[in-house]
Amino acid sequence: MSTTVPDVLRSSRKPWSSRYLRRSVRNKTAIVGALVLAIIVLSAILAPVLTHYGPSQMDLMSVTKPPSSNHWLGTDQLGKDVFTILLYGARTSLYIGFVSALGGTIIGVFLGAITGYFGGWFDAVVIRFSELIMTFPELILVMVLVTLIGQGVNNVILVFVFTGWMTTFRIVRTEFLSIRQETFIDSGRSLGLPTRSLIFRHMLPNVMSPIVVSFTVNFALYILAEAGLSFLGLGVPATTPTWGNMLSAAQSTDVVRNFWWLWVSPGIAIVLLVIAANLVGDALRDIMDPKGED
């Protein structure tokens, strides 16, 4: 007689379903946040279509011009179109935020799952290492690491990934420590299911809600962190268009007072993106809550 997976083990999985879709449609916060995020992402992707200027194209006859029909958000000190820089800067900022959050999430999920399931000496080593990293103020640690390895998009991403996996790791580890005591895991072990299958097919889906929320929060935080580093001159090189570099170029008192369009547009863009990402994260937490109302 063949061995089958019991119903309790099948029911442990929580895939995206019509139930979650119904919750999404009813959740106005999720719709608003997702709409704002979609507009920003699509604007970045369609930058060459939305503007006929180049991000490095200068017009010395149109220096620091206010918004007009030719330049919707004005021009900067070199005659570059601010709207164009905003669109192409969104590409870099979104790339940094997404890849950094994804890398930190993958590392955090993998280490959290392994340590939470097995425990033992490896768990103790990873916990101590994460505690050591977290004892340093994150901003100072990021600044030191960026200074050591140099500026650049990929270097900033490496620093963010190295310093940002601990939160996801602790969340996943805590959940796994609880889930590994459940009946369906004991049933799987008794049936001889491979450990890899138990961890990644039956336990991990139960932790997707906090993982998704952590990813969206980190995504917004990394975009803020990049803006802060670039503002301090420690992030992406000034020649690369990012929202942080736009703010850095507009930090003088004269620009703040007389050329408001140089800092208002990237500032609003960052605020909208961070708020939208957090709204989506909070909404996903409610939508994916197994105890939520259908």
Biggest sheet features: none
What does the overall shape look like?
Answer: elongated
pLDDT below 50 for ≥5 consecutive residues: which ranges?
A: 10-16
Measured as a percent range, the helix fraction is over 70%
Overall pLDDT metric: 85
User: Which CATH architecture?
Assistant: Orthogonal Bundle
Structural class: mainly alpha
Helix segment tally: 15
Strand content: under 5%
Query: What Rg is obtained from the alpha carbons, in whole angstroms?
Result: 23 Å
- Give the tally of structural domains: 1
Overview of the structural elements:
- With 294 residues, this protein is mostly helical.
- The protein has one domain (16-63, 72-287): MetI-like (MetI-like fold).
- The chain contains 15 helices and no strands.
- The chain has helices spanning 7-10, 18-26, 28-45, 47-50, 82-118, 120-134, 138-149, 153-164, 166-179, 183-190, 195-203, 208-231, 243-249, 253-258, 261-287.
- Residues 10-16 have low confidence and may be disordered.
What descriptive keywords fit this protein?
single chain, 294 residues, mainly alpha, MetI-like fold, 15 helices, elongated
Q: Would you summarize the structure shown here?
A:
This protein has 294 residues and is mainly α. 70% of the residues lie in helices and 0% in strands. The protein is elongated and about 75 Å long.
